[in-house]
Amino acid sequence: METGSPRSELKITSWTILLFSLLFFSSISSTEAYDSLDPNGNITIKWDIMQWTPDGYVAVVTMYNFQQYRHIQAPGWTLGWKWAKKEVIWSMVGAQTTEQGDCSKFKGNIPHCCKRDPTVVDLLPGTPYNMQIANCCKGGVINSWVQDPSNAASAFQVSVGVAGTTNKTVRVPKNFTLNAPGPGYTCGQATIVKPTKFITQDGRRTTQALMTWNVTCTYSQFLSQKTPTCCVSLSSFYNETIVDCPTCACGCQNNITQPGSCVEGDSPYLASVVNGPGKKSFTPLVQCTSHMCPIRVHWHVKLNYKEYWRIKISITNFNYRMNYTQWNLVVQHPNLDNVTQIFSFNYKSLTPYSATINDTAMLWGVKYYNDLLMEAGPLGNVQSEILFRKDMSTFTFEKGWAFPRRIYFNGDNCVMPPPDAYPWLPNASPSLTASLIPPLMVFCAVLAYLLGYLY
């Protein structure tokens, strides 16, 4: 076959397209799995062996949430692994396995769990004190370290048998999994590190673990859910247009093929659906809307002053089965480096790119005031306003500049309207600034007086 024949050119073109497609789709997956606003965020699992026993050891397992704004929400975390040998769990404090497994070969003292791949869950609040340790029994809920550092860890104690009794004979578990509460986290291999050191309460003595290993788990929204969980709508004082969330942003109404996928707000069956047998279900049950999102964030450009401008943020919960405790927003906007005042929300500046770029902020509710976003209904809404100082070298209302570039709710990227749908300035909008209007009015009044006097 000749080199320049059409068939050879077609073959080369096909291979080129295939290679480009593979590179393109792989880049999409890697991008979705990487959070550029929290590049170092992770869940670190620390396994500290505190005591040797006749056939194994006693360890304290602690999960630290080193993510800036992503929580582990109800119904909480589920931790799993696979034993390297034939280990069993004799007992646990502060947590329990979901299954005991086959312990028939044991006589007398029966282990807590004999499965090769145990699954562990946290105990619930109100657990008796003799079954608790520090940082346990929160129902698996772990808050982010920025928003609530005192509740950014969860721990339990486990007594392991049929295992090694020295740091040379112990084998590290493998295949760690973390659901929080669903898929989304990918855990690496356990790595033996320097033993953890502990300081006594009086600060005068330091002890250390007999052996320690760490496991790091990272989050991917792409793995967590197939559809988004929130969307953004926009409006402004200078345009009557209200830009709603994109249609079917989080799925489409499908009550015909999937009855009960959404509920009308005035439906007579709403009370029975929400308060019926499935009332403890954590599966979202959303109000029927065009966007079908559990959460909508509305950004309204409210007022324009000479040196300041003001916006209003409203968060609405359309999920009839979920109260969002310790909710948060992460917003990207170029004017966040000139925030003057925030009303009824907490604020923290995030600098994920460099210390000189300050265009990202984390917002969350004030404790005991609006830190709880109630389920869908009359109370399922929180709101606040932000006052910005104008930087005349960059400030403009043109081309959608006043609206956010990106918004996250509880760490999940919200669907934004397309840029060409943003509320634009009127075509005939006056170019005069507010500072020039009073002198102009005086000039016109004087001119009218003089003309009346002369004629």
From TrEMBL:
Keyword tags = Glycoprotein, Membrane, Signal, Transmembrane, Transmembrane helix
PANTHER family from the xrefs? COBRA-LIKE PROTEIN 4 (PTHR31673:SF3), PROTEIN COBRA (PTHR31673)
What the record says about family reads:
Belongs to the COBRA family.
Residues crossing the lipid bilayer are: 436-454
Q: Can you name this protein? A: COBRA-like protein
Q: Which GO terms describe its cellular component?
A: plasma membrane
A Gene Ontology biological process in which this protein takes part is:
cellulose microfibril organization
Under InterPro entries, the record lists:
COB_C, COBRA_pln
Pfam families xref list? COB_C (PF25079), COBRA (PF04833)
Say which domain of life the source belongs to. Answer: Eukaryota
Q: Which residues form the signal peptide?
A: 1-33
Residue ranges constituting the COBRA C-terminal domain according to the UniProt record: 229-423
- In its UniProt entry, the species of origin is given as Dendrobium nobile (Orchid)
